[in-house]
Structures are given as C-alpha cells and as structure tokens.
Amino acid sequence: MIHKAEREKHKRDLLNDLFSELGEMLEADRQTNGKACILTDTTRILRDLLSQLESLRKENSTLQNESHYVSRF
C-alpha cells in the first residue's frame, strides 16, 4: 500500500510532467515556462480556437444554406 505522501508526490510529478508537455506544445520561443505562464498562454490559445470554431460554424451554416438554394435551381 502506497502511503499518502508517496501518492501526493506521484500526483505532483504527474502534474509537473503534464505542465512540461503542455509547455512544449506551446510556442517554442517562450521566455518562461512557469505554470502560470503556461496556463495563461493555453487559455488565450483556447479562446482563439473557440472563436475560430464559432466563425467556421457560422460560415459552414451560411454555405450550406447557399448550397441548398443553388441546388434547387
């Protein structure tokens, strides 16, 4: 049975590995790799991607409507 301190260390190590992996996926020329910086950049990127997704959904909907209109004639 793993003691609580060992489980917590394993959990911290896993989180640190995940932060490192996430930091590597972000911009390569980053000044700092602190956790707060990684989370800030990730949040910014996700907001941008969600905005692009919404824009693409609207564009797709418009194109589908136009295609239905064109296919009728």
TrEMBL record:
<feature type="domain" description="BHLH">
    <location>
        <begin position="1"/>
        <end position="49"/>
    </location>
</feature>
<keyword id="KW-0238">DNA-binding</keyword>
<keyword id="KW-0804">Transcription</keyword>
<keyword id="KW-0805">Transcription regulation</keyword>
<keyword id="KW-0539">Nucleus</keyword>
<dbReference type="GO" id="GO:0003677">
    <property type="term" value="F:DNA binding"/>
</dbReference>
<dbReference type="InterPro" id="IPR057075">
    <property type="entry name" value="bHLH_IRO3"/>
</dbReference>
<dbReference type="InterPro" id="IPR011598">
    <property type="entry name" value="bHLH_dom"/>
</dbReference>
<keyword id="KW-0175">Coiled coil</keyword>
<comment type="similarity">
    <text>Belongs to the bHLH protein family.</text>
</comment>
<dbReference type="InterPro" id="IPR036638">
    <property type="entry name" value="HLH_DNA-bd_sf"/>
</dbReference>
<dbReference type="Pfam" id="PF23177">
    <property type="entry name" value="bHLH_IRO3"/>
</dbReference>
<feature type="coiled-coil region">
    <location>
        <begin position="39"/>
        <end position="66"/>
    </location>
</feature>
<dbReference type="GO" id="GO:0046983">
    <property type="term" value="F:protein dimerization activity"/>
</dbReference>
<protein>
    <recommendedName>
        <fullName>BHLH domain-containing protein</fullName>
    </recommendedName>
</protein>
